Amino acid sequence: RHGRIAGGTVALLGMGKLGSRELTAGSDIDLILLYDHDADAEESDGDKPLAPSHYYSRLTQRLIAAVSAPTAEGVLYELDLRLRPSGNKGPVATHVDAFKKYQRQDAWTWEHMALARARAIGGDAELCREVEGEVAAVLALPRDPAKVMAEASEMRAMVDKEKPPRDPWDIKLIPGGLIDLEFIAQVALITGKIEAGRRATGTAEVLSRLAPDFASAQVRQELVDAYSLYLALTQMIRLCLTGAFERDDVPPGLSDLLLAVTDLPDFGVLEAHLKETSQKVRKDFHLLLRAKQP
Fold first, then answer.
1. No. of H helices and E strands in the chain?
2. Are residues 130 and 178 in the same domain?
3. Which residue range forms the structural domain that includes residue 151?
4. Under a CB-based contact definition with an 8 Å cutoff, are residues 284 and 184 in contact?
5. Which pLDDT does position 74 carry in this prediction?
6. Which residues pair with 11 in a beta bridge?
7. Shared domain check, 285 and 156
8. Would residue 82 count as lying in a domain?
9. 102 shares a domain with 191
10. pTM of the entire structure?
11. Residue 124 — left, alpha, or beta (φ > 0 → left; ψ -120 to 50 → alpha)?
12. DSSP secondary structure string for all residues of 182-214
């Protein structure tokens, strides 16, 4: 009933673990919907015409409803659009020119860090190429590495304060956990501290390509091994549990599976290994992001 917008095209920009191809069971889907249309298109051509901004907002709302609607088998995915320009204060769909302007003029450091995992996942092929090119260009903009590192360190300290981990098994939030690894990878990427090659969005790949003048081979390997351990544990826990992991109430079958994916002999050894790994990562975080600040 609303018809079409002349020259209208859409590109879906995958963010977070969707963009980096690192989804685990139960992960939210982080998306930004970008659109373009003919310069003189003022409204759609249907019986009930809509202005382009309203039209694509409606389209986005339909997408959210389709993907996150409850079914007999549960919800397919929970969609999260908070990484769009201006977050919850901004429109749910963004014109590609507004996206470009925002990223170059108004985005904060944390938003460019989040953009490090962005990947066009669907939509009009030409618009997707345009968006991919713009993302790469924004990430390659000259930055003051010390300033980026200081701001990333401040953000991590704020997370430590406002969202403390529940226990040593809160792998995302523990000091030296997943967030530390993601911050290291994102800071390295937007400050040009990774080895040359195709643009990487995955945390594991970025960590494996940290530049020698940023991280030694030993540190690089420690970070890659830690990410592999965290991902294996997180994936298995999310496959087996719908709620939080409770250390004092671990189902026997889950204990066996966690030992199997880590190739360790017993749960005590696994916990010791997890603790040692997180301590190494936190040490490396300080070495790479805090020790290099003036």
1. 11, 7
2. no
3. 145-289
4. yes
5. 81
6. 34, 123
7. yes
8. yes
9. no
10. 0.92
11. beta
12. HHHHHHHHHTT-B-SSSPP-SHHHHHHTB-TTT
